[in-house]
Design brief:
Length: 294
C-alpha cells in the first residue's frame, strides 16, 4: 500500500473522489489556520506556543463548532459539514473570495452567500443600472443580497464598495453597519418592518441553506435583531413606497422605492429610487456627480 503527498492511501485501485476531496479539504484548512497569528484574532500568544498560527481548538472556538468535530475535519474523516459551519470557518480563517469558493467546492456544499457577479445580472441589466443614473438602482435577490448596483446607489447609504461582498445584504447592513444605519430616517420603524418581511420570506424558503446562514449571522451579531425576531411579526413587501434617507454628503432625501421583478420565479428584482420632490432630484444629481468623479 502506498501513500501520496496528500496522505491518501491506495493499493492498486483508484481512490474515490470523495476521499480525495476530504484530504484536500483537510490540508487546505491546516494551511489557512497556520497562516493566522493569535494576534490577528485578538488572542494572547503565550510563552509556550509551538504551533504555527492558530491551534485547532482556537479555530473551533472562534467558529462556534466542537473541537473534536473540527479535528476530525482536519483528519479527513468522513463527516457531514453544513453551509453554516463552512461560512463560520471561512470568516474565522479570513478567506478571500477565491479561497471561500475553494473551501465550499472541496466540501461539496453550495455556498449560500452572494457573489460579486450573479447569473441573473446580465450585461443588459448592467447597462440598465448605468442608464438609470443619477437615480440609485440595484439588483437584489429574495434574501436581500445586493448583487449589483450603480454608482449613485454605491454612495446612497454608505460606501458600499468598501463593504465585503459577503456582507452586502440589506439586513446585515441595517443591523450591523453604523454608516448605513445612520443614513436611515425612522430607523426603528424600518428595522421592525424589514424583520417582519424577512420572516415572511423565510417561510417560503424554510429549507434554503442561504437563509439559514443569514438568520444565524443576524441572531449572532445583533441583539436588536434577536429582540425583533422573537416578536414573530410577519409582513409582506409592496412594489412601491416612499422612503426617507439622510445622506452624509448631500443631506435629506425623499425617494419612491419601486421593485421591478426579474424573471418568472420572482427571486430577483431591480430596485429603483426616484426623487419624490425637486430638492431630492437636485441632491441625487449632486451625489451622482460626486460618485462619478471619485
Amino acid at each position: 500500500m502506498t501513500q501520496d503527498a496528500h496522505g491518501i492511501r491506495a493499493a492498486g485501485h483508484d481512490v474515490r473522489p470523495a476521499e480525495i476531496r476530504r484530504h484536500e479539504l483537510a490540508g487546505f484548512l491546516r494551511s489557512r489556520r497556520e497562516r493566522i497569528t493569535p494576534e490577528d484574532v485578538g488572542l494572547p500568544r503565550g510563552p509556550r506556543r509551538r504551533t504555527p498560527g492558530l491551534r485547532r481548538e482556537e479555530v473551533a472556538h472562534l467558529s462556534a463548532v466542537g473541537v473534536t468535530w473540527y479535528t476530525w475535519l482536519e483528519q479527513a474523516r468522513d463527516i457531514q459539514v453544513s453551509a453554516q459551519v463552512l461560512d463560520a470557518l471561512a470568516r474565522t480563517l479570513r478567506l478571500d473570495a477565491g479561497e471561500r469558493t475553494h473551501l465550499f467546492g472541496l466540501a461539496g456544499v453550495i455556498d449560500p452567500s452572494p457573489v460579486a457577479r450573479c447569473a441573473r445580472v446580465t450585461p443588459e441589466l448592467q447597462v440598465m443600472l448605468r442608464q438609470l443614473e443619477p437615480f440609485p438602482a440595484a439588483v437584489q435577490n429574495s434574501k436581500y443580497d445586493i448583487l449589483a448596483y450603480n454608482r449613485t446607489y454605491a454612495e446612497l447609504l454608505c460606501d458600499l464598495d468598501e463593504v465585503p461582498v459577503e456582507d452586502r445584504n440589506l439586513l446585515l447592513l441595517a443591523f450591523t453597519n453604523e454608516q448605513w444605519r445612520s443614513s436611515i430616517v425612522h430607523l426603528d420603524e424600518v428595522l421592525r418592518t424589514m424583520t417582519a418581511k424577512f420572516r415572511a420570506v423565510m417561510a417560503d424558503n424554510i429549507g434554503g441553506a442561504g437563509f439559514k446562514v443569514l438568520l444565524k449571522r443576524l441572531l449572532d451579531e445583533s441583539a436588536e435583531f434577536r429582540e425583533l425576531w422573537e416578536r414573530y411579526e410577519v409582513g409582506r413587501s409592496v412594489d412601491s413606497r416612499t422612503k426617507y434617507f439622510h445622506n452624509a454628503q448631500v443631506g435629506p432625501l425623499t425617494v419612491v422605492h419601486t421593485d421591478l421583478w426579474i424573471g418568472r420565479d420572482g427571486a430577483a428584482r431591480l430596485v429603483t429610487y426616484t426623487p419624490a420632490d425637486d430638492d431630492t432630484r437636485t441632491r441625487l444629481e449632486a451625489l451622482h456627480a460626486r460618485a462619478a468623479a471619485s
